[in-house]
Write a structure and sequence with these properties.
Elements lengths: L4 E5 L4 E9 L6 E7 L6 E5 H4 L2 E4 L2 E4 L1 E5 L1
Antiparallel strand pairs: 1-2, 1-7, 2-3, 3-4, 5-6
């Protein structure tokens, strides 16, 4: 289960999940988050992508790693 809080992206930047929503057409679960750098803009991403692993430097790593609430 994805929880609200601060996360680190595999490329190094940090983000904070501020809420959850459903896509209006597909009902797909979405994560609403803000970047914790620059203009602190808001973003949305499918929950399935939030939890997936990606290949980075030849290794499978989590896209986002939970840091704290």
């Amino acid at each position: 289960m994805i929880q609200k809080g601060r996360y680190k992206h595999f490329k190094g930047n940090e983000y904070e999940i501020i809420g959850f929503a459903k896509h209006s057409e597909t009902l797909e679960e979405m994560v609403i988050y803000k970047q914790l750098y620059g203009d602190n803009s808001l973003w949305v991403r499918p929950a399935s992508m939030w939890e997936e692993e990606v290949e980075f430097d030849g290794k499978l790593v989590k896209r986002f790693v939970f840091l704290q609430e």
